[in-house]
Amino acid sequence: MVDSRDQDTGSRSTDEAAVSARLRRLGERLDRIGSSRSKDAGAAPGPRADTSGFARGFRLSTEFVAGVLIGALVGWLIDRWLRTSPWGLIVFLLLGFGVGVKNVMRAAGLASNPAAGAERRED
Amino acid sequence: MTDPIHQFQIHKLFTIVKIGAAEIALTNSALYMIVAVTVICAFLIGSTRGRALVPGRLQSVSEMLYEFVADMIRGATGPEGMQFFPLVFSLFAFILVANTMGLIPYGFTVTSHIIITAALALLVFLTVIIAGFWKNGLHFLKVFVPSGIPIYILPLVSAIEVMSFLTRPLSHSVRLFANMLAGHITLKVFAGFITMLGAAGLLGWFGAAVPLALTIALTALELLVALLQAYVFAILTCIYLNDALHPGH
User: Fold this and answer.
1) B160 contacts in A (CB within 8 Å)?
2) ipTM entry
């Protein structure tokens, strides 16, 4: 009996520990997202940021188009090289769209930038 | 006279040397590049010659230029990025002077040709690859493996990262080239409207005031774009160089 109650409290306490650990991790992640958001939002109106909306829009569109074009180019080269036409072009064009979307999200600051790792380490 | 594309034509001024069928000639583009480099060197050497502790006007301009680029590099890559300062400063100064020289009437815009911007972007791209492998060895490949990704979608994500890396020289070069090309064509088209309307008599003179005002506004906008694009090119160079220095994330 004593054994079972011990076990019971033991399992409950590990459960609680797991839940609190998960909550803590979630909180840390939210903090990180919040801080990166606020950093981005704080950086945007600064004089050094690219203020012109035209330049920003142009940057995003070139990022997307470049992704699709590179996808098509890589697919076409693989087809020529391995004679797998048209599968390389199909697969890499679709991947290229994915790359374009990812580039745009990265340029807009919505996705984590691999280049931002150093800044985070410094913080 | 009002052909908006005519301003981008390259013509040779004189032939320097002829090797077989190929000839190496001095073109207007090459001349403007030489002028740009000469202007930069003359300005920097001339303005810092006094080496005054309390800088004069010109010396403080070149000191501000130095501080601006140095802050940009330190902000994007950390203090160890300063070893690439000569590269970033040269690119920034060259693009800045070439862009603004193109705004002078009858001038030629070197950066409105994709061959120039592509060469500059490929220079940055190859520098990132070589410096990345030189400093980190095979750890440089961590650029393509984001941390915290489940193993079963890692191949897909890595393929996307590799291709994303390959898109950099393309978007890097096209952005500068297309901005300069589009801006100068727009400017020329609106300037062409002035002469066309002006030839249409008295009413045309009043009508020409509208494109004249627009041309003045566009010139100011183009000046902004010229400065902004030089900055954008340099800051993207810093961001890419950051990958070479800190591939893990």
Assistant:
1) 95, 98-99, 102
2) 0.73
